[in-house]
Amino acid sequence: MCIQARGAAGAGAEQVLRRESPSGMRAPRPRDALKPVSDKFIKEEEKLDNFYIMRTPLTNPFQPGSDIVPDIWAGRAEQLADWRDVVRPRRHAGLYETGRTILGEPGTGKSSLVRRIARDAAASGDWVTPQLRIPSGADPLKIVASALLKLADRAGLVSSARTTVLDLLARVEQVAISGFALSVRSGDGQEPSSALFDLLVEVGLAAIRQDAVVVIHIDEVQNMTNEAALSQLLIALGDALVHTVEVDAPGAGPIESYLPIAVYLTGLPDFEDMAGARKGATFARRFRTTTLTAIDESDLREALRPLMTAGWTTQADDGALEPVRMSSAAVAAVVALCCGEPYLFQLAGQRAWNAGAGPEVSQDDVLAGWRGASSEAAAHVERILNRLPRREREFVDAMTALPPAERNITRIAQEMGMTSATQVGPFSQRLDTVRGIISRGKQYSFRNRAVEAYLTTDWPQVD
Ligand SMILES: Nc1ncnc2c1ncn2[C@@H]1O[C@H](COP(=O)(O)OP(=O)(O)O)[C@@H](O)[C@H]1O
Ligand SMILES: [Mg+2]
Question: In the chain, which end has fewer C-beta atoms inside a 10 angstrom radius, N or C?
Fold first, then answer.
């Protein structure tokens, strides 16, 4: 797992001196030899002739963090195609398609994925809620009601002359203010879910008229711990997904049509138990769950290819463009170190970029940057491990204690001190299907390679 450092340190600066500019301009000088760009005394022709190396934290395209659609995007082609080729066209055509639930351990890129889908949808004219993050213990009905009111505004419903619509907006405003408490108070059979559902239908009808698709993204859904509020919300969304209206199809007369509404729920795998157990078959029919796991190495390499070839174009204050490249050894090092984890991929890239100022990110930069980030990398894996219930953690530990060739269910059970393999079945199943941490089969293996590396090697340390 560990990568041997190779190449002379400081080569970057020398390269700066020797390097030919791609556009035939004068080769750039080392950074500290440059005059400040804003210097009023630089003559005009000097400004045009010189261009400045802009490999700084400011131009860094890597973005570790949460809830970010990163500039350097890798993989997830299947999920992006699912939106582009299935969910959007089907709901747009009035056909049924379930909502999507995208679950995964922290840092697997759930929020980024749906934010990207929503961003692309908004850019092509669809009506999109922002990412509706549910803070722990918050009332999701208030949050969703507020977002629906904004969509209603976008749909032009707020200026409607119909009193039924205005009454409906007033009902949803009440939900936005009081949330779940409304259902307890009102006692008139008017549950918050029915107000939300009614408004979803109105927004959906307006979307049909204006040829848009409505996208609703609710994030951190595992934080909806109020069972009754969660149930109200899932009923409103689920009912809107299965609701049909009559629309006039040119030449075919009135036809039954589903509303152009797409719902994405994202969060930790714990949501599967919460929603699955409580809502049972209805929830399962109306939402399809995908568990995100690591990104393939080939997808990560592909994502970094533009940095290797054309380079990442950075712009100096004076408007000159300067590409920063990444060596192929640096790309290989980033891909190896991050173990397929999107967060670690961004972290390794970010630190490598910041480890030098030359026009090429070298393997040394990757290793130097990673050394400074190894505690963050370890913390990332610990966050995943520490969330595991005791038995699942024991299962993972038992797996790592065995040589890969001996990781079968019987040996793992023995290692855990169990007498039969069936006793450990439920833990291994959850680690596989719910969390995406292991892969079951005749032989068991790790799908989360960062967890494996952390428990079985020196990773994230590098020599
Ligand atoms: N497909 C991707 N390619 C590259 N980086 C990604 C991708 N998806 C997510 N990331 C990065 O991973 C980090 C965690 O993403 P995030 O969506 O917040 O994870 P989650 O919501 O699953 O906790 C962010 O820094 C983000 O930029
Ligand atoms: Mg997230």
Answer: C
Report which secondary-structure segment, H or E, holds 364.
helix 363-386
Range of the domain at 162: 77-291
Ligand 1 atom 14 nearest Cα: 107
Q: Quick one: 146 and 285 in the same domain?
A: yes
347-356 pLDDT per residue, tens: 999 999 999 9
* Residue nearest ligand 1's atom 12 by CA: 343
Domain count along the chain? 2
* pLDDT, tens only, 50-96: 445 588 898 899 999 888 899 999 999 999 999 999 999 999 999 99
Pocket test for ligand 1, best of 79, 112, 302 (most atoms within 8 A of CB): 112
Model confidence, pTM? 0.84
Q: 409 with 428: CB under 8 angstroms?
A: yes
| Interval 104-143: pLDDT, tens | 999 999 999 999 999 999 999 999 999 999 999 888 999 9
- DSSP H helix total and E strand total for the chain: 19, 13
| Structural domain contains residue 333 | no
Determine the distance from the C-alpha atom of residue 337 to the mean position of all C-alpha atoms in its chain, rounded to a whole number: 20
**For residue 146, what is the enclosing H or E element?**
helix 140-154
Burial of 414 (C-beta count, 10 Å sphere; 0-12/13-18/19+)? middle
